[in-house]
Amino acid sequence: MGWNTVMLGLDGGLGVALVAIAAFTWKLTQSLKAAPRLQPAAAAPPEASVDVIIPAYNEAENIRACIEAVLTTALPGAKHFEVWIADDQSTDATGSIAAELAAQHANIHHLTVPPRPAGEVWHGKNWACAHAAQFAEGDYLLFIDADVRLSAGAIPAALAEAQAHRADLLSCAPNIIISCFSEWLVQPIMMSTIAIAYDFQAINDSTAVDDAFAAGPFMLFRRAAYDAIGGHAAIPNAIVEDVELARQVRRHQLALRYVLGIDLLGVRMYSSFGTLWEGWTKNYYLGTEENLPLTLLSAFTIAMVFVMPWVGLLASLIALLLSSEFSWPTAILYGLTALTLGAYGLLRWLSYRQVGVPLRYWWLSSVGGLIVVAIALVSIVKTKTGWGWTWRGRSLKAS
User: Fold this and answer.
1) Does residue 78 contact residue 50 with C-beta atoms inside 8 Å?
2) I want to staple 247 with a disulfide (CB 3.0 to 4.6 A). Which of 42, 47, 80, 212 is the partner?
3) Per residue in 83-97, pLDDT tens?
4) pTM attached to this predicted model
5) Is CATH 3.90.550.10 the classification given to domain 49-279?
């Protein structure tokens, strides 16, 4: 294969990458531009009646900080505000910490979730949520994860938003808190991809079941609506339970609303590469409803947007060192590399300006992109075979 042939192949790849970056940037900015943003409420809704349910499995590192954040909630005059920690057979100190907090605060309750019923398949947090919901008496049920951190105004703002729009399920996309190196590489790519795949305007304006989406870290149900759809008990074996609950809401012709909550709540999804890998390989393929062509297309798009510009830069540097003669393929390579890198830089800058997607380590996006592509492919294998398909060590393979 001649040098010019190699250059022409790279030129073609960079041309595709340039188109992919332009399309990705346009779709991302359009989705975020149309996204409603959760705003602090001027006052707490009158006679607020809320139960906060927190399913917890081996959350000793998170549960205290989560509860302490919930306790800052400002709901003056609330007729009912109770917090339920559903300890789902934890093997660490989650239970003892929950019991300690319950002893210190009258409105905090520690529930020891019983084992799953024999002969029934319950995945993820569905069993813990369904169990805890039986004890709640409020007009609203708020399900949050133990790694969520609420501001004092988050719940009042969510209640005001839900009531203003008569939402039966209000879900908030949280601010993604990033700390470890692998998170810096992967999470900005994942969050941008999700914002494109689940367009805010389509979710809020459509009535189609296929357009339904919700973010599991923060889901506020009107209690009557939760009961009407059967709650978590109606989807015991759903692994991506948040999306399935949103679809249940749509199937029952109830009102779904999805907003940006990044100003009032945050979540640290993963604390290490191991948990990040386990979590995303669990959810990625399922998030496309096991649509193989769509999953492969998303992996290809991510490779084009986040990896190919840096391949072009590397190839350009090699060409600069090795090529002693002028050729049009090499000149085009230099030009396309500059364009794709410029377009990619604009993408990251716009996402930072709109929703604060961090810029740190942006120059290592090729590594992050390769990890995400690997996640997509491995997720297909895990979902299809059950091999290594776990969450927090619990197997998700059908028995």
Assistant:
1) yes
2) 212
3) 999 999 999 999 999
4) 0.91
5) yes
